[in-house]
Design brief:
Strand order of the largest sheet: 2-1-3-8-7
Number of strands: 8
Strand content: 15-25%
Number of helices: 8
Protein name: DUF4276 family protein
Low-confidence stretches: none
Oligomer: single chain
Structural class: alpha/beta
Shape: globular
Mean pLDDT: 93
Amino acid sequence: MANKSRKVILVFVEGESDETVVGFITDSLVERLNDMHITLKVMYGDVFSDRRYSALSGTKIASERICEVLATEKWKVSDLLFVAFVTDTDGMFMNPTSLVVDDSMEVTDSFQYDLQTRRLLFSTPKKKMDITETRQRKSRHVNQLIKEGTSLLVKRKLVQTCVYYNSVNLEHVLFGKILPNHEKMSAADDFIDQYDGKGDAGVEGILAFFQSRCPADDYEQSWQFIKQNEMTNGYSNLALLFDKIQNYK
């Protein structure tokens, strides 16, 4: 690839803390590719759960989000090196028998994860129904995109596109527990502080951490695994994304 040719990596994540951690790692990896002209853009938003996209397929959602960014940034499809969608599994692969209404919960609490018993608890039947519907919608969209393999048709051109996961979410992967929303950003910053400013050693350390959380070196096998083992540990196949970036030629 010629040095002056623009190549863009798009990474879609769900939350601000995901953007902080994933962005730190991907930025560090792209900096190593200093003989190539690569633009990295990381943005957040849980598009696969959004009710506004209920009628669309997972592939259509992904394609439209990519086109939106291309239009905003004035990029062409041919500029794209590859696209990654990073999603929280959010209990979307759990057995329905593990979705339980718990009368002891505060009514103001929508739901909570019980990692020890591997259950998702709801305060009322109505909240169980609403959240289960959201998880099913997300599961359907994500599975549709995974079935496309590692490419997606965008404006009649094939673009390398993969979906990566954190189970149940990023905080479960990083800390082995579920954090309230107001603690997520400070926890993400604290995690990055362990590796920031340490040069290559810091980058290698954080890569080793995510490699230790990856259940398989094969993309399809990593998804097959998490569909059967979502709540057992904080697994993530983000190591496959990081490998893809640093091994790009």
